[in-house]
Design brief:
This protein is mainly α. The protein has eight helices and no strands. The longest helix has 35 residues.
């Protein structure tokens, strides 16, 4: 069991250190928020249109994330010879593959969570027709910029991996931005009921 956890954790960290993972997570989340920003003039069907669109983006992002990160990770290990080094030790092939699969699932869970937060926020923005949509979009993007700055700070001053720290920074700042926007985002700019207008059914539809 200890070997399984170690291999799965290493696989997870290797996946979140890939630049394509950070790029995919950021662009998909920002694009979901952007989908709720324009004026569609859909005669009252804007929330439904936005929800269907963000769910499609989440599906596509998950598929691309699984294919790109898994293939890149496996190709890198084959080139470096780490697969042979691990299998030469008392680790069964089934355990190795299952641990790699678990690490991939953890990485995709992070990607899905960030996209789900963006999708819920997009449903909130679609609920408020044309009211401060660009303000919400700027606040969410500002949180992502802070996450990137935190990753750059840790890389420059602490010598840590930029991509991994930026990934976890995006995970945290997306959550913070979601909470802040849903607490302080009505017409007057005062505090309001939390998550009013958020369609929580998107969680069930995504899962």
């Amino acid at each position: 069991m200890r070997q399984f956890v170690t291999i799965a954790t290493n696989a997870f960290m290797e996946l979140v250190r890939q630049p394509v993972f950070l790029l995919l997570m950021t662009t998909s989340a920002v694009f979901e928020i952007f989908l709720a920003t324009p004026y569609y003039f859909a005669f009252g069907d804007e929330p439904k249109l936005v929800k269907n669109s963000v769910l499609a983006v989440m599906l596509l992002a998950g598929l691309l994330g699984a294919v790109l990160t898994a293939s890149a990770s496996l190709a890198r290990e084959l080139r470096a010879g780490t697969v042979l080094a691990v299998l030469s030790k008392p680790v069964g092939r089934a355990r190795f593959l299952l641990a790699k699969y678990a690490g991939l699932m953890m990485a995709l869970s992070v990607l899905t969570y960030v996209n789900l937060v963006a999708a819920l926020l997009a449903s909130r923005m679609a609920f408020d027709a044309y009211v401060h949509r660009y303000v919400r979009c700027r606040r969410f993007c500002a949180g992502l910029v802070l996450a990137y700055l935190a990753g750059g700070f840790s890389n420059f001053f602490l010598g840590r991996a930029f991509v991994a720290d930026a990934v976890f920074g995006v995970l945290i700042m997306a959550t913070v931005a979601f909470v802040v926007i849903n607490f302080y985002n009505n017409k007057e700019g005062h505090a309001q009921e939390f998550a009013k207008g958020v369609d929580w059914r998107l969680i069930r539809r995504r899962c």
